[in-house]
Amino acid sequence: MRAQEFVVEKKRLKRLKELTFMGSQCTKDCSGHRAGYDWSVARGRRSASSWSPSFNKGAQLAATGH
To answer: Residue 66 has what pLDDT?
Structure first.
């Protein structure tokens, strides 16, 4: 890996570490967490277990009262 690629990768990883949704770390843009949270709230704050891990985590946050 060249020096410039290393710097770009380091910055990308730092941004990923900073991404959170209600205290839960997420990757990319936290859209899965947000969708799961909204889904759970619309259904009386139920948990989910059959979707993506990030969706399930968002639903879990809603179900536990966050």
So the answer is: 84
Q: What is the dihedral of CA 27, 28, 31, 34, to 10 degrees?
A: 40
Would you say residue 1 has pLDDT above 60?
no
Angle between helices 31-42 and 53-63 (to 10 degrees): 40
Hey, which bits of 1-66 come out as E strands? 20-21, 24-25
Backbone torsion region of residue 8, taken as left when φ is above 0, otherwise alpha when ψ lies between -120 and 50, otherwise beta: alpha
Quote the pTM value: 0.70
* Greatest alpha-carbon span in the chain: 51
Q: What residues have CB less than 8 Å from 59, skipping those under 6 apart?
A: 36, 37, 39, 40, 46, 47, 48, 51
